[in-house]
Amino acid sequence: MTFGKDPGIIHGVSALRDFLRTPAGRFVGLYALILTVGFTVLALKPVNDSVVNGYTTFVAHQARLTLLAFGEHATVQGQVLSSPRFSVAIHNGCNGLEAILIFVCGVAAFPSPWRRKLVGVAVGFAAIQLFNIVRIVALFYTGVFRPEWFGASHVFVWQSLVVVFAVGLWVLWVQRHARPAATK
Questions:
Q1: Residue 5 lies in a domain
Q2: The total number of structural domains that make up the chain
Q3: Residue 57: which of 101, 100, 89 has the closest Cα?
Q4: What does the pLDDT look like over 92-131, one tens digit per residue?
């Protein structure tokens, strides 16, 4: 057994350090740090109990209002959205906060003027929230008309689409709004 410095590990650490010195590396490192802090804060019991659960109930009420507009006799009890035809519980993970956090952390970490970041966060938050309400309503109707598809639709289709939507929205923000206008 030898104790010493493994040249492969040393090279890997050096390569990581060199990468983190590049603009892309600084973005990736800052994004990972902000995202880790964000998910950690959301996971704290006091934050979950006072903020996340309240937000999830708010999302359930927004979905209820949408279903009422479609003529459904929907009610909300806690975080359960119900009608005589179907009921769905909206849990943490179904409230859109993870997708919003992915987007917001990307905006915050990207080198851009703060004003553009604030506008991006506000517009992105609203867009992801709207998309998530569409998701919940679509899942509700999946449960009404094709309950056997509900599980796969919820886990494989819509969870992926919400995250892809958030990432796509971030890419759009970066391309169109993140960088200051070029001077001539």
A1: no
A2: 1
A3: 89
A4: 889 999 999 999 999 999 999 999 999 999 999 999 999 9
